[in-house]
Amino acid sequence: MMRHWAQEIPAHNVFLSPGLGLLLTLWSRVSKCRQYRREAIMDPTPIYEDADESGSLAQQLYRALETMIIEGQLGPGDRINEKQLADQRGTSRGPVREACRRLEEAGLVEFKVNRGFFVRVLDLSDILEIYDVRAALFSQAGRILARRITMAQIDELQQLQDQMEASIEAEDAEKFYLLNRQFHSRIMRFTGNRHLADIYENLDRELHIWRKRALILDGNVRASAAEHVQIIEEFRNGHPSRLARILRDHSLAGRNRLLRTMPDSIADTENIWDDD
């Protein structure tokens, strides 16, 4: 049974191991130096909601460019030809530039002075380093939440899982991906540790395009959803070490799914990822 007597314990660094505490401190400083222009998003939702006509066009361009990146039509390091895209869509360069700025904020492209927007290059070492930290964050979140997660929060995760199952049946990978991000972000937010959650959101933004690509291209939604069922069940049991392990394993399984979708020239994962 879950230890409800411990739910009032504040989620400060009392639950952090010294090594992870140092890791979080260092990563927090690194994250600030990246100077993202938008604050971390606690509840990932579509970027555009109340868009006017111009905003709707920028949204369409954003989605079109995102799809081109996911499907490999625009590869890492490729320049986005704003004029060509504007001509193809019969519009000015304003909405195209707005879409590119949104892509930059989402961590998918980068702006180079006097050169324009380029698809961001994220090499294998970047991905592995990010997933190392991500797995540690999930493990720590599990230890914290075993002591403090409420039944209402578990029910909220279950509702998200139910919606993900429905999106699988509807073959709606886009919706599954958004719900999947919300599921993970809720877990981090429920720890009550703002710094841990902020670091996670920065990491999630860096991996966004690769994780979405993995889910859409490799048909990984069912495997991911099955792991969510195990996570929710373990939340109900409330055992710290088991919960830490299952959340860590979920993150590492996601890493392996992602790596399997990468070009052979970047990663050969068959014999590498057998974690202890």
TrEMBL record:
Domain of life of the source: Bacteria
Alphabetized UniProt keyword annotations: DNA-binding, Transcription, Transcription regulation
Spans through the membrane: none
Any one Pfam family match given in the protein's UniProt record, by short name: GntR
Keyword Disulfide bond in annotation: no
InterPro entries: GntR_C (IPR011711), TF_FadR/GntR_C (IPR008920), Tscrpt_reg_HTH_GntR (IPR000524), WH-like_DNA-bd_sf (IPR036388), WH_DNA-bd_sf (IPR036390)
Alphabetized PROSITE patterns for the sequence: HTH_GNTR (PS50949)
Keyword Transcription appears in the UniProt entry: yes
Alphabetized CDD domains for the sequence: WHTH_GntR
Record-annotated HTH gntR-type domain positions: 55-122
Gene Ontology molecular function terms on file: DNA binding; DNA-binding transcription factor activity
Record's protein name: FCD domain-containing protein
